[in-house]
Each structure stands twice: as structure tokens, then as C-alpha cells.
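Final report, results section. Input specification for complex C-07:
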Amino acid sequence: MDLLSDIALGFGVAFSPVNLLFCFVGALLGTLIGVLPGIGPLGAIAMLLPITFQFEPVTALIMLAGIYYGAQYGGSTTSILVNLPGETSSVVTCLDGHQMARNGRGGAALAIAALGSFFAGSVATLLVAVASPPLARLGTLFQAPDYFSLMVLGLVGAVVLAHGSIAKAIGMILLGLLLGLVGTDLNTGRQRYTFGIPELSDGIGFVTLAMGLFGVAQVLVNLEQHAMPRATAIVGSLWPSRDELRRSVPATMRGTAIGSLLGVLPGGGAILASFAAYALEKKVSRDPARFGRGAVEGVAAPESANNAGAQTSFIPMLTLGIPSNALMALLVGAMSIFGVVPGPRIVEEQPQLFWGLVASMWIGNAMLLVINLPLIGLWVQLLRIPYRLLYPLILLLCCIGVYALNGSALEVGLMIGFGLLGYALLKLGFEPAPMLLGFVLGPLMEENLRRALAVSRGDASVFFTRPISATLLAISLLLLLAVLMPKVGRIRGDAFRE
Amino acid sequence: MSNILLRQNVLGGLLLVLFGVLGLALGASLDIGTVRRMGPGFFPRILSWLLVGIGAGIALAGARDASADRVSAGAWRPLAMVTIALLCFQLLIDRLGLVVATIAVVGIAALGGRDTRWPEVAALAGVLAAGAALLFVKALDLPIPLWGR
Amino acid sequence: MRKTASMILAAAAGLLLAGTAAAQDAWPSRTITIVGGFPTGAGTDIYSRMLAEPLGKALGVSVIIDNKSGAGGNVGSEFVARARPDGYTLYFGTAGTHAINVSLYGKLPFDVIRDFTHVSILGDVPNIMIVNPKVMPNVNSCADMMKLAREKPGQFRFASTGNGASTHLAGAAFTKMSGVDIEHIPYRGTPPAMNAMMSGETQVMWHQSLTVMGPIRQGVFKPLAVTTREPIAALPDVPTVEKACGIAGFESTTWYGLLAPANLPDPILRRLNREVVAIVSAPEFQKRLNDLGITPMWSTPEEFRRRNEADIEAWRKVVADVGAKLD
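Structure output:
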């Protein structure tokens, strides 16, 4: 079969000693850098890009891909261990992952994340190998009304995400939506809520918000409760229990499916993958109350979704040469420096590049497993450092991470503000996660709503006549009803309590 | 009165109302446009009103519910020390560089903890300052000033 | 006693003089930073990385890139405008940051000419008028596109990467000068704009050459025209907008250039200019630029500054005509 010979070619390329070595080095460096809070895959690749210039294009790309997965996984490590999400996709892992760490199951959480990511990566790589063209076409079907409906679905899902009072979750989402609007209005160029500060004209940085809301706020709460987190204790073995493994399997598979599909969508699609996977798990679970308290499915699903999405997001770039997000744009730029041009003809013109890259995707995932599983012991030991020494380190890393983004001390100030806000919200019984989701989805939702109306010349029926949009809106409605129905029967006061 | 105010939902709801009001006030100059051609002020206005509404609802429900949770007591020292420590980083990083800013953050943040042992803090500050300088500036080549611009 | 004192004074004076002279000659003695106004992966970032490596070798120090994106490049520009003119902070500017933003934004907190030292121009970046052949199968030339748009006014849209970007201004100038009605739909950056072209949400685009060269070569997009006066080396068979669309005098390109804070000491300026010119004019480097669709350029500092000043005026007209405005 042709596919087998292609794969053989790819493995032949990828298994050369040089390429293997640099795949490993890339994955290792990526992981280490990804662990640093605030520096996600984009930052890691930007940082290490100059190093790759001296290599052959195939080797350089393999190394860059390794860095990408490494940084993605490294971000999960800090999410679980110290509640610091480095990337949008790592936020959801914080929810249950960090709780697992606080329950003493940090090692298990890290292991599940690694295993789930590996499974998802393998499946997604297979998809890239066999289904790139149709998946790429799927990505190009979406227009503004479809994106809008997807965002609506995402926001309804955010309500599912919350494990407390619905009203408070909606309040958080609204606040997040409003914060997301800070910046320059795309259509008119007007500044909104920027107080004339140029650094705000492109909006509040996600990392700044997340570091403050999650990282700093968590430190403040921990210090107040004199709660030296019991993560210092390791409950049971480092490895996941049979029960944990059993629960993770279906979650991983669902997460992989969601991530693979959403990953091909430019922009908003990939961000939604981990949120959607988490929400789905919570919805289908027999005991949703476990979520937010350390449910292992709450780690397995988003992690798999993330990694699957990370692989499939290569598809539009490889098959069409169209970058679907900033990171892909960076890789396209890097490729152009190497003189490599991705696109439909790349499979015929440079098969060893394409298949070598695909093979190295799988190898990179395997490398991550090899690198990270042994490291789990190390990381968990790190947590046993007395909190009085750990939290200044966490705070320092937050500061440096935020500052290094744009070399701006102002961002650090913003982070402080968000830290205080996050602390206040936690004390008032609010959850920050829905706010973050609203923050990310809000501007996209508004943009696409206005764009859809502009393209259709004011005709709102377009949201219901386009099949994709109509389907998504229908699902949103069903989901909303499913969430709200049980509440309708209760006394109104009850609905506002936890 | 203060009893009611200290309930989580009341304060929380009021906080949301505050944000809504801020959203309305700060966004007052933005053009709303029409539903068909939304202006930059359309979404902010709607969101702000919704915030006010939900916030008021939550606060009212909290005020009526006598058995609602109260806000747990805060600890002033950690809050103040951490905030000051982070502010020091922000103010010092450009003027005096990473090394000084690190020492400041670690030292001041340590004041917010419970059992601070000063030799320990000093050692930690030194190690972290050196480590940060080596890792971020020397190894990773990040554009962070070591000793100020 | 007096002799000793005067000897000491003389020695001190000598040391002082030697010290200042040494300080000047000692440039560069540490890492040089090229600040960029756009995010990593953007065209400016790509070119600046291509430049940093040989420049570092030529100067014997490490040259790193520091991108401070925001406000269409203004955040980066302001940072460099306020930096010390010691030769260790440079700016990778564009016509956008230094010739267009003045007219686009109400007022800037810096002066693009007076607060900067112009080192050398680095290249010309054309915009390429592209369509997606799957979406517009019958459009093979600019004339075809214009005919279609005239037959069905208001049915077609062009994508841009943001309000005030060259992708917007080129398209807006086109529609204004040709009288054809193609509506402008802005997107946040290249990825969503390109996707809009793939999905058919927009039918035409005037994208900067760098990012679209790949898709063009792969047949994903079809180039109809280039916005320069002459066809570009990377696409020798693609006519100019002027010829293909019949719009006399149409030109809409942006340049890249290297700048520094104002009052850069002359020896440093001359050395920088010399090295940069040597790098850009090298045949191998020129070829790489041409492959990217960038027309290599280099100049003296004075020539660059004059070009900048002229362009400010030229773009002021365009921006006013098009009516683009940012806060």
C-alpha cells in the first residue's frame, strides 16, 4: 500500500541519528522552557529558532516540532503542580490537575497527562498522515456565522464548566467577556477601555491575566489560609491507580476526538478544544460533583484534546501553506527562511520532508513520554520544598514570565491587579475559569457577529441558514436547556446558592 | 448591616455591579450603532447592563438568605507583603535590573509568610537571583536587564 | 609638591581622555538588541532574524531580536525612541511604523524623524493582489476581477489584516482610484484573513508578499497583480496594478529599514551602515530576499531619512483619501 511505503520513507528520514537526536533535544528543551510560567510553545519556539538555523531544513523542522510538543506538555506540568497555566490550553488542566496535586495525587496527574497526550498525539498523527486533505477542507468551511455559533456553544459550555452556582458562573463569563473587549475595535479602530495606554491597545495579554488570576491569586489564598498545600504529602504511589487509569481511558478517547476536530479550525477552534473536552466529560460523568475537586478525567480529557489539537493544527499549514494561528505563522516564517514552501504540492515535491515531519510527530510524542515520565518523580519532589521557600519562587517566575513577554513592566502591574482581583473573587466564592473562557471567546464572538452581519448585509437569518451554524446553535440550545432544566424546578433562592 | 454585607454573595454581587457600572461609565463615549451595523459600544453596553443585572440579582438573593456563607477573614500581612513585593519588581526591573528586583521580591514576599527564617530567605534570594540571571539572561538570551537600563 | 600634583592631574586627564576615547572605540562590546514592532513570525521578525546572524558575526557580538508588538508597531517605536543612543538598541522599522502611523493615529508620543537615527533602508515589500482560484475560477486577471465587480457592485469583499495595515490601504486605494465597489472586511492578522480567502468569505486580497509567496507557488492563490512600479523578481510574469488594472500611477508598497534612537554617535552610525549594506547587497542574501518577494534595498543614512520624509507626505494623502483612522 502506498501509505505504508510513505510511512516507511518518513520513518527512514526521522530515524536518522541526527534527526532523532535533535528531536530529543527539541522535546527536552521545549519541556524545560515550557515549564517556565508564561513561556508557552510560541515563546519557546521564538527563543530557540535561531539555534535551528544552522541545521538542514528537515532536521530544523523536526527539532522545532519537538520544541512545540515539549513546551505544550511543560505548560501542563506547571498547571498541575502550581496552578500556573502558561497557555490558554493549559488553563483547564489547572482546574482538576492542581486539585489532584493538592490531594497528593500530583504524580498521577502528571502521568495521566503524559499518557493521554501520547495516545492523543499518536491518533492525531495518524490522522495527519491519512486524512489531511479532507480535514483541511473542513477547516476552510467555517465562515463568520459558523465561528460565532461555535463561540456561543463554547460559552454555553462554560456554564457547564462551573461547579458552583450558575448565576455566579454567568457573572464571571460576562466579566471575562467585558475584559476581553479591552483594546482596539477591529472595525472602527476605536480604543475601548485602554486609557490611552499603548500596551493595552492590542488587548490584555492572556498570560498576564492568567498569571495574576491563577498564579498570584492562588499564592495569596494559600498564604492566608496558612495552608501549606498538602501537595507536600504524596498519597499512594506516584503512578496512577488502576481506578484512575480505568476512568481516564474513555475521557482520553473523547478528548482526542474533540481535539483532533477542533484543531483544524483556525484561531478559536484550538482554544476551545480543552474547554470543550472538559465540559463534555463533566456532562457525561455519573458524578459531576467530583469535577473541580481532583477528578482524573478532568485532566485526561483536556490534555488529550490539547495534544490532538496541536498535531492537527499543522494540517492547514502543511496542506495549504495557510497558517491557522500565530504559532503556525511563525513556523511558516521559519520554513521560508529555510527555503521550504508548505502547500498542496509538498507531498509530491518534497515527500521526505512531509513524511519525515509526520513520522517525527509521533517520535516526538514518544520522546515526551520517555523524558517526562521519569521527571515526574523529580517534579513531585520539587513540591516537597517547604511552601515558605516555594511561593517566592512562584511569584518570581510569574513576574519574569510576564515581564519577558514584551519587556514591559506595565504588564507586571496589570498582573498584580489581576492577582488581587483573583484573590477577591476566590474569597467571594467565584471561579476564575469561566472568566478566562469568556475573556478568550468574547472578542472572537463579537468580531464574528459583526462580520457575519456585514457580509450578509444585515440579514440575521444567515446564522440559521448555514448548516454548520444552525447545527452549532441547536446544540447550544439543547445544552443550555439541559443545564438549566433541573434548576427551574427549584426555589429561586436556591438557584443562586452553591 | 455589616452582617449582611459580609455575605459572599452580597459582596460578590456588588462587585459585579461595580464592574458593570464601570463598563458603562468608561464606555460611554463609544458609539453604539445599530443592531445591523454594531458600533464599538454595542457589546460593551449590553455586557455592562447584564453584569449590573446579574450582580444585583446575586446580591439581593444573598441579602435575603440568612444562612448564606460569609466571607472568611483575610490575613492582611501576606496580602500586603506580596503586593508590595510584586510592585517592587515592577518598579525596579527597568531601573535596577533583574538581580536587585529578584532580591526585593523574594525578601519582601518572605515577610508575608509565617515562619520566616532570615538566613534562609537571604540564601534563597541569592540563589534565585543568580539562577534567574544565569537561566533567563545568559542561557535563554531574554531581553531582561541584569543591572538596569 | 606642585610637580607631583600637576603630574597627577595630567595623568588623570590623560586617563579620562583615553577612557572616553576607548569607550567610543569599544563599541560593540556587548549584546545588541534589534527591537521589532510586530509579533514573532511576522515579516519584520523574519527579516530581522535573517539580518541578525550575519550582523552579529560582522560585529563580533551577539545580536538578539526583541519584539514589542502592539499599536501597529508604536509600542516598539516608542521604546526605541526613548532608548539610549549607545548603539546597543536598534529598531526594525517599516513604512507602517514611520511613514503611515503618523497620519493614521491622531498623535504619536514621539516624532518619527527627529527621535530616530536612520541607519539604512533594507527592502521594499510589495503587496500582491491575490484571488483563490477555487472560489473565483473565472478570474485570471485584474481586468476580469474589475469587470465582475462592476457587474455586481457590493457583491465582493476584500480581506485585510487590520485597519490601517498595508493590506487595507492598498485595497482601499485600489477601490478608490478605480471606482470599483469592493467592500473592506478587516481581520485580526494574517491567519484569519487567509482563512477567509480559503472559505470564500472574501474574494480578493492585497497581501504582503512574504507570507503569500508560499501559497502562490503552490497554486493555492493566484496572483493578479503587484502593487509596485515594476514587476518583482519573484513573480516576473505578474503585471503591475498600474498596467493590469489600468490605474495610472498606482503604487502601494512599504519598506523595511533599520533605525536607532536619535543622536547616534557618527562612528557607530557609519560602522552600522557599512556592515548592513555589505550584508544586504551580498548576492546570496539578495537571492533569499527576492525569493521571499522582498526587493532588496540599501542606502546611506541620509538617503533613508529623505525617503522616509517623502513617504510621510505621500501616505498622508492616501490615508486622508481612504479615510482610515485609528485612535
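Chain C is about 45% helix and 20% strand. Residues 7-124+254-322 of chain C form a domain with the D-Maltodextrin-Binding Protein; domain 2 fold (CATH 3.40.190.150). This concludes the modelling results for the funded period.
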